Amino acid sequence: FKMKDLSGETVDFTDYEGSVLLIVNTASKCGFTPQLEDLEKLYQKYKNQNLVVLGFPSNNFGGQEPLEGAEIGAFCQKNYGVSFPVFEKSNVRGKEANEIYKFLSDKSANGKVGASPKWNFYKYLVDKEGKVVDSFGSITKPLSGKICKKIESLI
Predict the structure, then answer these.
(1) Are 132 and 112 in contact (CB under 8 A)?
(2) Is 148 assigned a catalytic role?
(3) I need a surface site. Which of 16, 87, 94, 100 has the fewest CB within 10 A?
(4) Active-site residue, from 30, 54, 72, 92
């Protein structure tokens, strides 16, 4: 997969080979937006053990991502100290979903999970081999024991 980050640079996902990924659809005006702080803490806790958190801003749910491009990055950095990679705003469900999310939500493609995000801050966990191993709903906090134990089993 290849996707553009917030600065418009193309990121080749082969750059993440050998890393555990936590992929999250984000929005700046959502009740779950404070999870950005815990996502950053999770990233800092495990990044030296090859965990990468990837943020995918989306306006698919309730129009809760009105910002564009650099505004999204500035919001995430200023308010929550986000240093993990954040990609350009895109769709994460339906026919217009970006290629990453089409893969993440299609069990016939990824072999494990057959669910698209139901709201902002839906999380997918991908192992070092690029296999989707689990997904977590919006209410599951990034630093929950459930997520941390699963990450620790993969790193």
Answers:
(1) yes
(2) no
(3) 94
(4) 30
